[in-house]
Amino acid sequence: MIRSHPGRTIALLFAPLAIFAAVPAQADGNVQCKSGPKENWKPIDKLKKQVWLEGWEIIKTQVEGDCYEVYARNGEGQVLEAFFHPVTLKKLVVFRRGQEIFRAKGF
Amino acid sequence: MVRGSGKRPLRGMRRRGRVKLAVSIALAVPGVLMLADWWQGRALAMDLLHPTGELSVRLMILAMLAGPLVELFGTAHPLGRVLRGWLTIRRNLGVAAFGYAALHLVFYAADMSVAAMLDELPIPAIWTGWLALALLAIPAAISFDAAVKALRRRWKQLQYLVYPAFIIALAHWLLLDWHWLGAALHLAPLALIWTLRLARRRSLSRT
């Protein structure tokens, strides 16, 4: 198969990458919170209340770049990846398995 | 002389068998450690998703590089022995790649309920993972000598499924993380070797 039509086969192999054309790019890999110096950040533990108010169950919290990142499960059991501003603790953007499902106004 | 020539291939086969067994054990070690970490609560299932997926992709790359490298450079040079050895363990690498993909699924299932897994199945980043695993399962399931004999030419054709499995696995990775550099770096060695092989085959067909 590969021997007879190598060019066509390679093109066929790369075809799944066309999935990206059909799915809008949602780059959670480079979320920037512009949160300034760490001295002004609120403790990450304070996020727990914020997440509880969302009705989510925390799986994990961590610092990602200049943001607080939370992995949580919502009431429907969906796993979410949310970014919060470390100074205001405002919810900025939420992804579900790479798809953006929430973005704060003006962010 | 007669006695010696009869024993030599047998000794070589036994040696290859021992090497393959040692390689299989070595390849299983990271997986066993990850399972132990998760079982004893030292790591979250979620945190083991990326290492298992990445290891699976890397092993696929190693399995897929051996053939084209031998085709391009042959084995009649000082590094030929390395390439021959690499070819010998290619099947082990492929099976280990599937093993880590399956472990990736185990950690995913441990992190989710069945209802939640079904709920997120239509998400592109998720169904691409399932598809890559299904495609990889076929060559892995026939990676034993009896299957090679039974399937003959069809065996090799089925092994080629590792190529779409690899590309779809990269798509799965990208759709989840959107970190282009990591996926591109993993694709680069194969893209280079495939391009070189294509160029060589074209030049050979012209002559």
TrEMBL record, chain A:
Pfam families: PepSY_2. It comes from the Bacteria. InterPro entries: PepSY. Residues 1-27 form the signal peptide. Residues 14-90 form the PepSY domain. Keywords: Signal. This is PepSY domain-containing protein. It comes from Novosphingobium colocasiae. The lineage of its organism: Bacteria, Pseudomonadati, Pseudomonadota, Alphaproteobacteria, Sphingomonadales.
TrEMBL record, chain B:
Residues 52-169 form the Ferric oxidoreductase domain. GO terms for cellular component: plasma membrane. One of its GO terms (molecular function) is oxidoreductase activity, acting on diphenols and related substances as donors. The keyword Transmembrane applies. It comes from the Bacteria. Keywords: Iron, Membrane, Transmembrane, Transmembrane helix, Transport. This is Ferric oxidoreductase domain-containing protein.
